[in-house]
Amino acid sequence: MTAPAPYVRKAFHLKGPVQSASLVITALGLYEAEINGQRVGDQVFAPGWTDYLKRVPYQRHDVAAVLRQGENAIGAILGDGWYCGNLAWKGRQIYGDRPMLLAKLEIVYENGERAVIVTDSTWKTSTGPILESDLIMGEAYDARLELGPWSEPGYNDFAWQPVCEMADPGIALVTTPAPPVRRIEEIAPVSVSPAHVFDLGQNFCGRVRVTVRAKRGSTLVIRHAEVLNPNGTPYTENLREARATDYYTCGGGEAETWEPRFTFHGFRYVEVVGLEPEESVEITGIVLHSDTKPTGVFACSHPLLNQLQHNIVWGQKSNFLEVPTDCPQRNERLGWTGDAQVFIRTACFNMDVRGFFHKWLEVMRDCQHPNGGVPSVIPDKNFLGWWGSDDGGPAWSDAAIICPWTIYLCYGDRTILEEHYEAMRRYMDFMARERCKGFIRSHPEGDAWGGYGDWLALDGSGVLEGATPKDLIGTAFYAYDAAIMSKTAKVLGFEKESQEYEVLHGKIVEAFRRRFVTPEGLVASGTQTSYVLGLNFGLIPEDARPTAVAELVRNIEKRGCHIGTGFVGTPYILDVLEANGHLDLAYKLLEQETFPSWLFPVKNGATTIWERWDGWTPDKGFQDKGMNSFNHYAYGAVGAWMYRSVAGLDVDPEEPGYRHIIFRPRPGGSIGWAEARLNTPLGEAAIRWDITDEALAVQLTVPAAAHATFLPPAGYVGDELTFGPGDHRIALPRV
Ligand code: BGC
User: Fold this and answer.
1) Residue 332 catalytic?
2) 106-143: buried (b, 16+ CB within 10 Å) or exposed (e) per residue?
3) Is 611 known to be catalytic?
């Protein structure tokens, strides 16, 4: 059981007409405020999720229109949320034991006089119809206990209790750069089974609104699931301890409509039980996520790749909720740093995630360990209770370097580097001081925790024989970090530090070569990821690259042209193949339909990206229920390659924010046309290419104040071309 949601209210008198009024409000926990019977604002899960030990955002609303001369009332419903509800698998009351509200209503009368209403001991409280409310477990609502017009003046709150006035917890109140979570769209079911299992046709994050006609006291049990068992019942084992169930007890009478307030689920299917045969229920899916506006479109002639793009976008929608989460359904939903860095480049194409990441990186700074280490999950309150709490390990904590740099590149946003540089430096110092031996990170002889390895790779995640070694991953990312640091310092005008990081980078590269690369170009362990990291991060000497490339190709072909990388190698594998003369193989991997591949889930009806390549296979069925989400965006990192190389729209790091657009289409595979459109900070940039009988026909759009370079693909006659703003058409004859 979780706790009933408290309602709080205060009635007040305004002695004259109001000129302006603003409500400044926040909570530890969640709140929904009302004034005179009207909801204030449209944010879901206000005030959002931050490191509540350090700061909490407040919201400001202009509420003059709902106030009136005479009697008024203000109130709020409080939810446990992340503050005191269940968090991942750690139980309840992680930050505090109960929700608290803080509000100030400032009124200016038309005659210039002022009045202020604040949350104090004059407010009253009662419980009401919300018997339980928990982000992970669900919500239980008993309409028989509704309170009536509780936020309106004249309401009889005689039976309500005085609130408990709490001491100021001393947490900084701040504004947030992040867009709020909102109800973004509605989804109608595509079918319903005789057993009342509704199929919404799309796996997503949110909840359902029900409209029910049933007798007073009937309780609907509303269960959510991502997939079905073979017999058509909801498969919920992979939710682990997340109950993901809402209960609605009917008040009786005409149709009743209800939607929970303080919970969300990750699901496609909804089972509703508890109705008598003559009773009826309709449901509508309500999609919730941080209101990051769509910016990008990718499409091509290959329907399965278009579905893959759709799945990537829905993985993003489902997991960009206050923080970039790993998954929205099981009892986890944490801001895993590794997942975020793997996916951020793709995310920046699909939506405007700049404010979202500004906020998340602010939380990261709040959670950075005093020693400079960056935890596995952000926000963190020592959730994990192991090394991961002060050091997320290779490819996870490196989000501290990769994410701000990516936001800078994609939005030309220098402020994110300014804000984060100190944290980046502290993180680099931490690694040098505490995590490296002879520039090898996670050196097995140290006591360092080696991280999660190449998480969920088919050849193991770093603890198994044959898996990509954790110190190899660690050192590769350390080198990558040093390279980014050198560039970052340069952008910020810290020339000396830029050079120091460049020197550091050189030393790490040398150490990497000494330890992991043979003179001929074999890379330790021989996994796809070991070659991908070595080649992508420039860690293999020039003359040894051909061997390394050949080994990577051999590994892929040995698997019948299948991918074997985990979270760590996946984002770069196609770039590496393309950059090293194997575009054809990159396309074979991208278009591969058999297991393991990106299109295997698509062929099997996926509407989001699965956590693992083998989440479900025909011969084995569902994977281990303890770790099998069907809505994890990490492998969706391939999206960036579809924009950048299939369609051919990229940013020039020298002129970030798409001031200089690189059009670099690399047609291949079975694809006959492709297009990408991106709403850049300067306006819409677009490319579309079509293969005709005799040429490659290309249309380009360059926004005002930008310029572009077109780099022709192999196989067509054409020179490098430059373009100014406007629409352009070119045709490149076949060679
Ligand atoms: C999460 C991942 C995360 C991983 C760390 C899992 O439980 O779902 O996405 O990155 O742990 O290894």
Assistant:
1) yes
2) bbebeeeeebebebeeebbbbebbbbbbbbbbbbbbbb
3) yes
**Residues found in the chain:** 735
Half-sphere exposure of 451 (CA within 13 A, CB side): 35
Q: How far apart are CA 32 and CA 183, in angstroms?
A: 14
- The residues near 486 (Cβ < 8 Å, ≥ 6 apart) are 498, 499, 501, 502, 505
Q: What is the pLDDT of residues 344-386, one digit of tens each?
A: 999 999 999 999 999 999 999 999 999 999 999 999 988 777 7
Give the mean model confidence (pLDDT) for residues 501-505: 98
Residues 212/107, Cβ–Cβ less than 8 Å: no
pLDDT at 1 over 70: no
454 lines ligand 1 (CB under 6 A): no
State whether the beta carbon of 383 lies less than 6 angstroms from ligand 1. Answer: no
Q: Is 338 a pocket residue for ligand 1 (Cβ < 6 Å)?
A: yes
Q: Is 455's C-beta closer than 6 angstroms to any atom of ligand 1? A: yes
Q: Cα separation of 345 and 347, whole Å?
A: 5
Q: Which of 32, 332, 578, 591 is catalytic?
A: 332
Tens of pLDDT, residues 75-93:
999 999 999 999 999 999 9
pLDDT bracket for residue 461 (50, 70, 90):
low
- Lookup: tokens for 113: 């006089």
Alpha-helical (H) ranges within 280-353 are 303-319, 337-350
Q: Is the pLDDT of residue 465 over 80?
A: no
- 326 CA from centroid of ligand 1 (Å): 7
